[in-house]
Amino acid sequence: MDYSDKVIEHYTNPRNVGVIEDSSGVGKVGNPVCGDIMKIYIKVENNIITDVKFKTFGCGAAIATSSISTELIKGRTLEEALTLKNGDVVEQLDGLPPVKIHCSLLAEEAIHEAIADYYRKEGKLSEEEIIKKCNLKPNGSFCPHNV
Amino acid sequence: MENVYFDNAATTKLDSRVLSKMMPYFESVYGNASAIYRLGRNAHSALEDSRKIVSEILGCNQDEIYFTSGGSESDNTAIRGIAYANKDKGRHIITSKIEHPAVLETCKSLSKEGFEISYVSVDENGFIDLNELQNLIREDTILISIMFANNEIGTIEPVKEIGKLAHEHNIYFHTDAVQAVGSVKIDVNDLNVDSLSLSAHKFNGPKGVGALYVRKGVKFNPLITGGHQEKKKRAGTENVAGIVGLAEALKLAYDELDENNERIIKLRDYYLDEIKKRIPYIKINGDLEKRLPGNTNISFRFIEGEGLLLNLDNKGICASSGSACTSGSLDPSHVLLAIGLSHEVAHGSLRVSIGKYNTKEEVDYLIDCLVEIVNRLRNMSPLYEEFLEGEK
After folding, report:
1. The CATH number of the domain covering residues in B257-391
2. What proportions of chain B, in percent to the nearest 5, are helix, strand and coil?
3. What percent of chain B shows pLDDT beyond 70?
């Protein structure tokens, strides 16, 4: 497997591993059948993601995309975080092998789920609005087994 | 440490004594073994001496040994060759669910050419079900192909019983013995084997050379046609240096079999005992008794194999996993699923295969690294977090 130095650096020393006890939102995607599960915790203050932690069960690419995604959304507004695309994550990692691209999708989706969870707890938006704003997938998270 | 090599089931380091034996056949005795002049005749006699060594170790005749490019070619030749040559007798083949892809994919390909394939299941330790095998046998069954020992979990199949069953029904029995040759004593007549594959690089020989034993009288078509080499069963100028290397490696493996196995089994059991003591929530895959000396396969729950391998690689350790991420497909190892593991547990498997060059110091280093890495990956795993919450 040809991983870039950046991917190797991130799975070797992943940033922001852990949980946030008093988190504002939690997003969990993937399933053990696929071999990838990501769980992202966010702390939101004044619409800004002030802290983010993750836990991931998965391959090197899954760990590296989780790690870099948390770096990319920390300190951003919720709207900015929602614009983060898997393509950006892949670019930031100096590329991923083609078979690993689905891992970067998982990171994007986990962030969207965490933000949706925050909005639900906040109680200002209807479920329909949350689904639209966070671009939630109707059938849950992406799994190549389901394609 | 650098290059702590624990992937001896994938391939092995060439024994330097083997390389010394091979060198003259690159440098001075480079003649074509089919040529009439002395340089060719010398190459030819090296070829036949090698065949004699292989036949003596397997307990067969010299003219029952065919040299090939390796295990995959031997398996392809045996299965395709026997299927094509005997298709008038029947078109049914039985194999197992845990074969190497060289066998599985060949059978799959034959199933598109009018052959019918049945796959016998295995129990939780990886042993094929002999009763099921018996029930799968039909009037038109021409071949049973079951591996000698599994490459992932090390389980040694009841080869002799399978051969007996096959012969009672006048069916040919092929065994892919790529993992077993070099570490298990084999007598093809005693084991009722009609055809057997082996590969030199699995027992400290060179890559790119293997052999196929086919019992005299068993009809099979060649896979590679062209020249008259190997009694017209395998065309192509013989890889004399490689074949000399194969024979020498095989000879050394069996001359030193007992002492190597004793040492390797000791290291293996030490590794398993220490891991059991120091890492909770694991499952040792494969049978503990009827097992290849150097094979270990452990599932570490709540973590994924590729992450484990990458972290081991950072420590200079080479091993292998049955996780989907390392198989290049979306599913984890077909062998681990066949013995009943869930996808999740199969994803977290680690195969450590110990060879004759491994030391206790290396095993200790591996254990210490694994304790640290498994712990770190578990602390990163949402599955472990949920498990601990459930335990509370």
Report:
1. 3.90.1150.10
2. 45, 15, 40
3. 98
